[in-house]
Amino acid sequence: MKKLLIPVLLISAFFFSCNTETSDGSLSQSPNFVLMFIDDMGYGDIGVYGATGFETPNLDKMAAEGMRFTNFYAAQPVCSASRAGILTGCYPNRIGISGALFPYDNIGINPNETTIAEMLKTKGYSTAIFGKWHLGHHKKFLPLQNGFDEYVGLPYSNDMWPLDNVGQPLPEGHNRNSFPNLPLIEGNEPVDFITSLKKQDTLTTLYTEKAVDFINRNADKPFFLYIPHSMGHIPLGVSDKFRGKTKKGKYGDVMEEIDWSVGQIENALKANGIAENTVFIFTTDNGPWLNFGNHGGSAGGLREGKTTSWEGGQRVPFIIKWPGHAPAGTICNKLACAIDILPSFAKLASANLPELKIDGVDITALWQGNFDAEPRKDILFYYGKNNLNAVRKGNWKLVLPHTWASYEAKPGQDGHGGPRIRKTVESPELYNMMRDPGEQFNVIEYYPEKAEEIMKLVESTRAELGDLNVGVEKGSGSREIGRDE
């Protein structure tokens, strides 16, 4: 049976230009999927989203030839949780993943959860990840045990090493002194260690070259390529070909190298004659790490940044290019979330959804320009271990009582982080996202009925998923994280 599969896939790849939709809206021939996922890149860090001081011509072209979203949200405003959400279609707290996993953790993604890669493998897809994993570094949690055929990258964030953010030794007693050297893993084993900023400089180009090679080797069959770049997480690394090229210093240089990476992927798809049959998505894991000043990104006028439940923490850029399907040069203002990518890929590949409940919805109607559709009605803003800090429903966002670390302080510079200020929302606040995306004007006294309406969703969510802000540790739908015991 396996021998017969190869010529069938070759024939279908040859006739990719004859894609048609079936009566249920799915495609008669499955597309390839490329998902580029950037670390700590803010809403305002792409030209078409208002970036200044550097250029992103490839991303701007991708938006001109495809579609960009203005109300797209990461699953949570932090590393591991965000990655869990995009790969499983679940709010990360549903599957027990929160915050950022560290080298000393013995936890990771539960093998009972289904990733995009595992789902697409059932439809004959080749799968690869080149970049940051961050869903558990023990072997049982690594990509090859979670649906991926190939993996080259870091198992967690590039600052989880025994050096500071400018590559210097840490003071005695610092908690990171006990961290191991940062491993570069191929398959299941380390093949090198990132022990200096000079080696950090190689990561974006390395991941890009691996991705291009994968496309070249798999152009005759359907594939899923996941490229979660380590940059622009601090410590920033950039190759010599982009160092010193922008007016915005090292962060701008990093952004231009990421834009170059987009161009390299586009070129490889075109060179192999498969660009027309590929869904290419670019998005980010959370908002910018603002207290790092000139080594951090821009929230594009949104409030706060990474690790907060304000818009700057979780609203992120999203661009999709899907020739012949996503209308060129369009802007979608409808609500969407990273957890919607898995069910959308399932629809296009005619794959079965995971057996366990997911939270994502199929948004392919939006991708194809049907803006009368409204597949997603609301967004849940969870953070911390399991704290429900806000809920957005339509154009309204109800911010619930919670405490957060604010960036309203003097930022650091050149890789050194500045202080953050502890602040608290004492009582519910209501914001109109259409008129006030910067969340400056609490209008709950004018629209109490809107707050009451959203509170009904809050209560049902707390029952299903829990909310530590009100002492509910878990809900009826909570599942366990994976453990290496």
From TrEMBL:
Can you give the residue ranges of the Sulfatase N-terminal domain?
A: 31-349
Q: Where on the tree of life does the source sit, at the highest rank?
A: Bacteria
Q: Does the keyword Transcription regulation apply?
A: no
Mind telling me which SUPFAM superfamilies this protein's record contains? Answer: Alkaline phosphatase-like
Q: Which GO terms describe its molecular function?
A: arylsulfatase activity; transferase activity
| Alphabetical UniProt keywords | Hydrolase, Signal, Transferase
Q: Tell me the Pfam families matching this sequence.
A: Sulfatase, Sulfatase_C
InterPro entries according to UniProt? Alkaline_phosphatase_core_sf (IPR017850), Sulfatase (IPR050738), Sulfatase_N (IPR000917)
Q: Where is the signal peptide?
A: 1-19
- In which family does this protein belong, per the annotation? Belongs to the sulfatase family.
Q: What is the protein name for this chain?
A: Sulfatase-like hydrolase/transferase
